[in-house]
Model the fold of this input.
Amino acid sequence: ILNVEQSPQSLHVQEGDSTNFTCSFPSSNFYALHWYRWETAKSPEALFVMTLNGDEKKKGRISATLNTKEGYSYLYIKGSQPEDSATYLCAYDAGGTSYGKLTFGQGTILTVHP
Amino acid sequence: DTGVSQDPRHKITKRGQNVTFRCDPISEHNRLYWYRQTLGQGPEFLTYFQNEAQLEKSRLLSDRFSAERPKGSFSTLEIQRTEQGDSAMYLCASSLPHTQLFFGSGTQLSVL
Done:
């Protein structure tokens, strides 16, 4: 059974604060680590797909890092805005012919207060 | 193309009834996935197709569940003799090989 853990489970921050979440995943048979943002009543939106150890990706105020040897990834949000409020999900992908068969963490629920 | 669409958005049914959900993927995507999400958990993999072939099914998918993708385009997920434990959000996603998954908005199933 693959274990993907996210922490914290929920987070309340004030507008303008910077924040970060953690995703831990199996370091064996690793192919990719996906990050998604899921707002209520919308589709989960892909933020990053990360494959290389030490990789760092950035999209606006959001960035992510990847350590495949120790099995963790961090997601950072700089200067949080109320529109960043969402559930942030990470998902482990063992690749091969089963690419896209993702094992998700339980998510981090972020609430940004104006 | 407007992305992955799922129908219906919400379904309320009585225990024991059959329900069917539809997913229309992004047109050029050959991979189609079904996931299920229950409250407080991340989505869980159910099954996936490459074109019309169903390549893998999760142990979560009991005999009451069946999925099809008859012409390699849209897919249906049918649940027979629904149980209260089937209440969940059913998500569909599609992708090209080895690229990110694009998700639909899901079908929220409530079994009374």
